Amino acid sequence: MIHQQYQYWRQSLRGNVLGTAIGALPGAGADIAAWVSYATSKRFSKTPEKFGTGHVEGIIESTSSNNAALGGPGCQRWCSAFLATASRPSS
Description:
single chain; mainly alpha
C-alpha cells in the first residue's frame, strides 16, 4: 500500500488540499470533504469507470481528504484565541 501512495501522489496532494480547505469551513466536516474529494478524483481520473469497485485512486484521495479535514477546525481555534487575546486591554 505504501508504494501506491507514492504512485498516486497527485491524488494524495489534491485530497490534502481539498480536505484542509473544506475542513476550515464552519459546519463542514470530514465526511463532506471525503465525498467532494472522491467526486473530484473521479472527474479527473483516466479510468472513471473503475470507481465504485474499490479502485485505489479514489480511496487514497478520499482518505487523504478525510484526514486533512480534521485539522481544519484547528485554524479557527487558533485564530479565535489569538483575536480574543489581542482584543483584551492590557492592565
